[in-house]
Amino acid sequence: SLVCILGEMRGGKPVFPGTSTLNQLEKICEVVGNPTEQEVTAMDSPFAKTMLDSLQKPDGSGKGWKALYPNASEIALQMLTQLMQFNPSSRLTAVDGMKHEYCKQFHDPASEDAAPQPVLIDIDDNDKKSTSIYREKLYQAMDGKSLAKKGKR
C-alpha cells in the first residue's frame, strides 16, 4: 500500500489503476515483473496464487519504476523497489522504511512511539471484503473496540 501512496504522490495519479483485481495485478507485473514460484509460495495465499496463475504473462522482467518516474532520484526508485516485493518478508518494514535514505529527513526516533506489539487483523484475505469491513477490523485491532461505530474516525 505504501508504495502506491508514494507513487501517487510522485505521479499525481494512481500507480496501478486496474479495472479489476486481475487487471491491477497485470499492471503491477508490467512494472515489477512476474513473481517467481518462491515469491508466490511465500505469500501463503491460495487466492493470490490463483489470481497470479491466471495472469497473461508476456515476459518476466517488468519495465521498472524508472519507466513510470523518469525524473525520480535513485534513492526514491530504490525505496519503491524495496517496498514492492511479492514476498512479504522481503519488503521493507515500517521501521526500516523510516530509516531509509529517502525518508531520513522525516524520521525522528525520539519523537516516534512504537506500538507495544504488532497490529494483527483477524480477517481472512482469501475472501473479498468491503473497505468498511477492513476499516472496522483495523480499528478494532488498534483500539480494542469499534471506533467506527462511535464515529471517531
From TrEMBL:
Keyword Ligase attached: no
Record's keyword annotation contains ATP-binding: yes
TM helices/strands, residue ranges: none
Keyword annotations: ATP-binding, Nucleotide-binding
Cross-referenced InterPro entries: Kinase-like_dom_sf, MAPK
Taxonomy, superkingdom: Eukaryota
Gene Ontology molecular functions: ATP binding
Protein name: Protein kinase domain-containing protein
Source species taxonomy: Eukaryota, Haptista, Haptophyta, Prymnesiophyceae, Prymnesiales
